[in-house]
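User: Let's play a game. I give you a shape written as tokens, and you guess the letters that built it. Ready? Here's round one.
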């Protein structure tokens, strides 16, 4: 079987809860960012929400992108590790029910990773992540046959937080490059860009064909405080860069070419979880269909706008999957 996209990342079950800004301040969390935490600390926080409405779904940055491309009609596969526990079984069933290829649970002592997502009234999401068995993803989990069957591979920056997970990501990129398969990479978080800058600069320069980031991550990666200068520096490194800018839309461009600007689709944001992931899904789908950079960025912008209109990191059921209609909506 061939796949339009094969992604790799930390397979995490998302647990989303609505909170007030005071809760974020009280616990001194980094609003809008991701913090690694323990299962014990997660459970303590969950007790504070006892009885509060929350949503549980299979997640992880690259997993959201892979799922989003599947919704648009692509054939996709996701490489990640979950345990043979209730969360791992939920994750596997959820991915399979969506038609995403997935290796299934591991019989291991370490439990499935979880991400507690705190959503404030301004729709911003703050993530507290317990990696669990996802942090034990290693190069042997990268199936060369599956990678070689891909039109594009997609790698998340969060894998740089562990030596084995980083090695798995690099192995996947190396297989892809040997087989002339484009490598797409997402910086994932400014924390990742700041903590692993030198390694990431080398990976972007030598192993990445398409880079996804937001403007905060771009500035962190480029060591610059100006969006335009940071974007130009990353274009020179990666070749092709898609950079999201929140309500300001996004930029896309290739090294040596002019920057193309795409406006955001106007929507009322409820939850920004997965916005960047779904942007990548739409953009990669456009490229996969042979569309140009601007058209691909428009599809990405549409998918990002759709996902923020409801709770969770999945495309709403009413979203258009007809690419021509999406492009027509943008041009209206």
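Assistant: Ready! My guess for every position:
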């Amino acid at each position: 079987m061939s796949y339009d996209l094969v992604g790799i990342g930390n397979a995490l079950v998302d647990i989303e809860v609505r909170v007030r800004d005071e809760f974020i301040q009280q616990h001194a969390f980094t609003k809008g960012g991701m913090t690694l935490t323990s299962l014990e600390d997660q459970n303590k926080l969950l007790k504070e929400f006892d009885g509060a409405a929350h949503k549980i779904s299979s997640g992880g940055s690259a997993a959201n992108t892979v799922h989003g491309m599947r919704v648009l009609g692509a054939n996709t596969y996701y490489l990640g590790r979950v345990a043979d526990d209730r969360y791992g079984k939920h994750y596997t069933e959820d991915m399979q029910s969506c038609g995403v290829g997935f290796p299934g649970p591991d019989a291991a002592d370490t439990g499935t990773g979880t991400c507690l997502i705190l959503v404030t009234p301004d729709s911003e999401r703050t993530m507290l992540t317990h990696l669990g068995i996802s942090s034990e993803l290693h190069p042997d989990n990268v199936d060369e046959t599956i990678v070689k069957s891909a039109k594009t591979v997609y790698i998340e920056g969060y894998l740089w937080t562990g030596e084995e997970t980083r090695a798995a990501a690099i192995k996947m990129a190396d297989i892809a490059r040997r087989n002339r398969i484009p490598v797409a990479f997402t910086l994932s978080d400014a924390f990742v860009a700041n903590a692993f800058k030198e390694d990431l600069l080398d990976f972007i320069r030598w192993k990445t064909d398409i880079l996804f980031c937001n403007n905060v991550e771009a500035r962190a990666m480029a060591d610059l405080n100006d969006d335009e200068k940071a974007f130009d520096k990353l274009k020179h490194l990666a070749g092709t860069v898609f950079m999201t800018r929140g309500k300001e839309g996004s930029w896309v461009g290739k090294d040596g070419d002019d920057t193309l600007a795409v406006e955001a689709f106007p929507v009322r944001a409820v939850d920004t979880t997965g916005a960047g992931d779904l942007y990548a899904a739409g953009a990669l789908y456009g490229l996969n269909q042979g569309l140009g950079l601007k058209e691909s960025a428009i599809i990405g912008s549409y998918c990002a706008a759709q996902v923020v209109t409801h709770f969770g990191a999945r495309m709403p059921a009413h979203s258009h999957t007809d690419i021509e209609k999406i492009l027509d909506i943008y041009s209206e």
